[in-house]
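thought: user wants a sequence for this fold. calling inverse folding tool.
action: design(structure=
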C-alpha cells in the first residue's frame, strides 16, 4: 500500500517573539515526516490610526518601514535556517489589524492542512480581557490546530 502524506501545507503564525517561534521545530518535524511545505506567516500590525490619530502617524513612516524590514529579515533568517535542514519553506507577510481574522482568512483561502502555533498560556482575567489569538483561530478554521504551550518557567 502506498503511503499517503496527510499534510501538504503547514502554516506557523509568528510575531517575532521567541515564544511564537517555539512552534517552528514542532512544525518542522511534522513537515519533514510528511514532505510538506512549511509557511511562516506574519501579520504585520502597524500602529492603528484610530488609536494614535493621523497627526501622530505623520513622520512615522520610516519607523513603520523599519519595523516591517526587521520582521522581514527575521523571517528570511528563519527560512534560510529551515531550508538548510532540507525543508521546503516560504514566508508570507500580510498587513492587517485583526491578527486572528487575518490568520484565519489566509488559512481558509490557501488550503492549509495544518496550523502549528504557540500560545502564551494566559489564563483568567488576562485571557478574558485580551482574548486569545489561538482560541479565535481554532474557532474559525476547519483544519487541525496544534498548540504549543510555553514551558512552566516561562509563565
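)
observation: tool returned 155 residues.
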Amino acid at each position: 500500500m502506498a503511503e499517503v502524506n496527510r499534510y501538504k501545507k503547514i502554516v506557523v503564525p509568528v510575531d517575532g517573539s521567541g515564544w511564537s517561534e517555539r512552534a517552528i521545530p514542532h512544525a518542522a518535524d511534522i513537515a519533514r515526516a510528511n514532505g510538506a511545505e512549511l509557511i511562516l506567516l506574519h501579520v504585520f500590525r502597524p500602529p492603528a490610526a484610530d488609536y494614535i490619530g493621523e497627526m501622530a502617524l505623520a513622520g512615522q513612516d520610516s519607523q513603520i518601514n523599519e519595523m516591517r524590514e526587521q520582521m522581514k529579515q527575521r523571517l528570511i533568517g528563519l527560512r534560510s535556517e529551515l531550508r538548510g535542514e532540507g525543508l521546503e519553506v516560504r514566508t508570507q507577510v500580510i498587513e492587517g489589524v485583526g491578527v486572528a481574522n487575518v490568520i484565519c482568512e489566509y488559512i481558509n483561502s490557501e488550503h492549509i492542512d495544518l496550523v502549528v502555533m504557540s500560545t502564551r498560556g494566559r489564563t483568567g482575567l488576562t485571557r478574558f480581557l485580551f482574548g486569545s489569538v489561538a482560541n479565535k483561530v481554532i474557532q474559525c478554521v476547519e483544519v487541525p490546530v496544534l498548540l504549543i504551550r510555553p514551558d512552566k518557567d516561562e509563565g
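thought: summarizing for user.
answer: Here is the designed sequence. Residues 9-48+57-146 form a domain with the Rossmann fold fold (CATH 3.40.50.620).
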